[in-house]
Write a structure and sequence with these properties.
Blueprint: H1 2-22, H2 27-42, H3 69-82, H4 85-89, H5 97-101, E1 103-105, H6 114-118, E2 127-130, H7 131-154, H8 159-170, H9 178-185, H10 191-211, H11 214-226, H12 251-258, H13 267-277, H14 293-299, H15 306-319, H16 322-328, H17 342-350, H18 352-358, H19 361-377, H20 379-391, H21 396-404, H22 416-420, H23 427-451
Antiparallel strand pairs: 1-2
Helix pairs in contact: 1-2, 1-3, 2-3, 3-7, 8-10, 9-11, 12-13, 13-15, 15-16, 17-19, 17-20, 19-20, 19-21
Length: about 450
């Protein structure tokens, strides 16, 4: 938050200098939406029950337990002190006077830690620097270290949490019933202590997860979903097979909520979150807690973003969502002339057997034509796609598509030998290909005579 505030100050300072030199309109005018979004991001951590008026700068899930309100006030104070009256008028109905009244104490008891000075909130003592000015200096000297230390020190020391995590790392046997108690006991662990044990804790947790049973894995993931400070560990663990037991405030459910129709999350942010929803598994054969896939489809710009489109297709396949699969296999999305069509077409070929069971014949014909067209034009990559098509070669629709796309002898890439060597090709196919070639040859001769 302090880094955002310092960045806001630098933007205003640079804008004023440029405007002064060039007589151009102030950069602050164009940056007002950014400044407002920065305040919208921080204000909920400063004011209770604050209702955001605009989109915040970031859409992230933050555990309030690890937010130091004093630091958040410092950030608001710094930003609010430099913005224009037009931006301030946006918050006429919000009481923002309080943060600017706080000052740091002039002196501190040397027996206390430095953070006690930085986080002191005494409005009636002798004043030295405002907190904003001190944080500006701190940012210049190394804000990351200072902010991290302050956040860690702001949580009361808990030696029991350190002993618990150390015992877990060194324990020989771990029982499923020990996991909930573990996360409960280390819920107050400071960032500084956690980073001290992070590497060994992560290795130990992965070992227990890999060798433990389903109940143990479920306990680990549930514990991680409550412990925001170590949520990075969830990316290295395979989640459990059923999410129905997870509480409403779990990480996965928070991500799903961002795809709802009421979400104000930007499309770019949703594109980044899509991979979180992919490859999730539930014991009932479906893949996620209740999720409106229609709202996901409308929330993501899959028409222009090829990566988002691929992730959506994977999600649709895993969720067995026929409408989404039909929508995402339109001809314009299968065009082999696009920038990088191979991953998308490969994904379709790998799931061709499922498509044959749910899609209408007309759409399957379009899909197969594009798959075979790409295979003919790209021998190296095309062979892999062709192998997946061959696995479904006994299907009549696939058989007809193979015949329809058999290249003539004058094509740039002669794939005829490759196609006739496929497992799905029998004498019936070869006979029809021979007849096809004879007809093509006759037409070519007739065309030559027509031009004489």
């Amino acid at each position: 938050m302090i880094v955002i505030a310092v960045l806001a100050g630098e933007i205003i300072r640079a804008g004023n200098e440029i405007s002064h030199r060039t007589h151009a309109p102030s950069i602050e005018v164009s940056m007002r939406p950014w400044l407002i979004s920065a305040l919208e991001f921080i204000l909920p951590y400063v004011l209770d029950n604050y209702r955001q008026k605009s989109h915040p700068l970031f859409f992230i899930h933050v555990n309030f337990r690890y937010v130091n309100v004093s630091i958040a006030r410092s950030a608001v104070d710094l930003i609010y002190s430099i913005v224009s009256k037009e931006v301030r008028s946006f918050y006429d109905d919000v009481d923002l006077c309080c943060p600017s009244k706080w000052r740091l104490e002039l002196s501190a008891d040397h027996g206390d830690n430095l953070h006690n000075l930085l986080l002191g909130e005494e409005s009636n003592t002798d004043m030295s620097f405002s907190r904003s000015e001190v944080w500006m200096l701190a940012a210049a000297l190394g804000a990351e270290i200072l902010v991290t230390n302050s956040l860690s020190c702001s949580i009361p020391p808990d030696s029991a949490a350190e002993k618990t995590i150390s015992s877990f790392i060194n324990a020989e046997n771990i029982d499923a019933h020990d996991i909930p108690a573990l996360f409960s006991d280390i819920s107050n662990i400071t960032i500084k202590v956690f980073r001290k044990y992070e590497k060994n804790f992560k290795r130990r947790l992965e070992h227990v997860y890999t060798n433990g049973g389903e109940e143990l894995r479920r306990s680990i993931y549930e514990g991680l979903s409550h412990l925001a400070s170590v949520s990075l560990l969830t990316t290295s663990l395979n989640p459990p097979t059923d999410y129905s037991h997870l509480p409403d405030n779990s990480i996965l459910r928070a991500v799903i909520d961002l795809f709802s129709t009421n979400s104000a999350c930007t499309k770019e942010a949703l594109h980044d979150l899509l991979p979180v929803l992919v490859n999730q598994v539930r014991s009932d054969g479906r893949n996620l807690p209740p999720l409106d896939l229609q709202s996901v489809l409308s929330a993501v710009d899959y028409r222009h973003d090829s990566e988002a489109r691929l992730n959506l297709l994977l999600l649709a396949i895993q969720q067995r969502e026929e409408y989404m699969i039909y929508e995402l296999t339109r001809p314009q999305y299968l065009n082999s002339n696009s920038s990088n069509p191979f991953p998308y077409l490969l994904c379709i070929s790998q799931n061709l057997s499922a498509f044959l069971a749910i899609l209408p014949r007309s759409r399957l014909k379009v899909i197969l034509d594009h798959l075979l067209e790409f295979s003919i034009q790209n021998e190296d990559k095309g062979r892999e796609i062709l192998e997946h098509v061959d696995e479904c070669g006994t299907n009549e629709i696939v058989f007809d598509a193979l015949l329809r796309n058999a290249p003539s002898f004058d094509s740039p890439t002669d794939l005829l030998h490759t196609m006739t060597s496929l497992k799905s090709i029998d004498e019936r196919f070869k006979g029809r290909v021979s007849a096809y070639v004879e007809i093509v040859y006759a037409l070519q001769i007739a065309k030559q005579f027509a031009t004489i």
